[in-house]
């Protein structure tokens, strides 16, 4: 009877260790697939109370407005460079591919990609709004938060200012 109790105890320990190991492996796998959402000002100044900055190689999503005059297309490839801005800053984005039909300057977008050196995001996907009034909820909330901040708001260049 004593042996039977020990066998049950060993079996329970093995099951608990197995569940712990499986949970750890699942959490590790999910951690590497999470794309955190940032606004341009959060990339430049940090996010949250600890002012945590994204690191080079981190997968992320950045949302904001396409800066007027910032879209530069390579004539020989599908590479496009543009800037996404909010009330406090602008971040350069590089994308290789065909942009959505609704992508244009002055409109809200979300770019999903990887943080590169010098605060440049190498986008793997660019999502654009789908009608005149739509702004992605994350972008709208972040823009509201940024507009309630200090008076030193970032103002993008006006549309049609001669920049190309």
UniProtKB/TrEMBL annotation:
<dbReference type="Pfam" id="PF03100">
    <property type="entry name" value="CcmE"/>
</dbReference>
<dbReference type="GO" id="GO:0005886">
    <property type="term" value="C:plasma membrane"/>
</dbReference>
<keyword id="KW-0472">Membrane</keyword>
<feature type="compositionally biased region" description="Basic and acidic residues">
    <location>
        <begin position="134"/>
        <end position="147"/>
    </location>
</feature>
<feature type="region of interest" description="Disordered">
    <location>
        <begin position="134"/>
        <end position="164"/>
    </location>
</feature>
<keyword id="KW-0812">Transmembrane</keyword>
<protein>
    <recommendedName>
        <fullName>Cytochrome c-type biogenesis protein CcmE</fullName>
    </recommendedName>
</protein>
<feature type="transmembrane region" description="Helical">
    <location>
        <begin position="9"/>
        <end position="30"/>
    </location>
</feature>
<feature type="topological domain" description="Extracellular">
    <location>
        <begin position="30"/>
        <end position="164"/>
    </location>
</feature>
<dbReference type="GO" id="GO:0046872">
    <property type="term" value="F:metal ion binding"/>
</dbReference>
<feature type="topological domain" description="Cytoplasmic">
    <location>
        <begin position="1"/>
        <end position="8"/>
    </location>
</feature>
<keyword id="KW-0408">Iron</keyword>
<keyword id="KW-0997">Cell inner membrane</keyword>
<dbReference type="InterPro" id="IPR012340">
    <property type="entry name" value="NA-bd_OB-fold"/>
</dbReference>
<feature type="binding site" description="covalent">
    <location>
        <position position="130"/>
    </location>
    <ligand>
        <name>heme</name>
    </ligand>
</feature>
<comment type="similarity">
    <text>Belongs to the CcmE/CycJ family.</text>
</comment>
<keyword id="KW-0349">Heme</keyword>
<dbReference type="GO" id="GO:0017003">
    <property type="term" value="P:protein-heme linkage"/>
</dbReference>
<comment type="function">
    <text>Heme chaperone required for the biogenesis of c-type cytochromes. Transiently binds heme delivered by CcmC and transfers the heme to apo-cytochromes in a process facilitated by CcmF and CcmH.</text>
</comment>
<dbReference type="InterPro" id="IPR036127">
    <property type="entry name" value="CcmE-like_sf"/>
</dbReference>
<keyword id="KW-0735">Signal-anchor</keyword>
<dbReference type="GO" id="GO:0020037">
    <property type="term" value="F:heme binding"/>
</dbReference>
<keyword id="KW-0201">Cytochrome c-type biogenesis</keyword>
<dbReference type="InterPro" id="IPR004329">
    <property type="entry name" value="CcmE"/>
</dbReference>
<dbReference type="GO" id="GO:0017004">
    <property type="term" value="P:cytochrome complex assembly"/>
</dbReference>
<feature type="binding site" description="axial binding residue">
    <location>
        <position position="134"/>
    </location>
    <ligand>
        <name>heme</name>
    </ligand>
</feature>
<keyword id="KW-0479">Metal-binding</keyword>
<keyword id="KW-1133">Transmembrane helix</keyword>
<keyword id="KW-1003">Cell membrane</keyword>
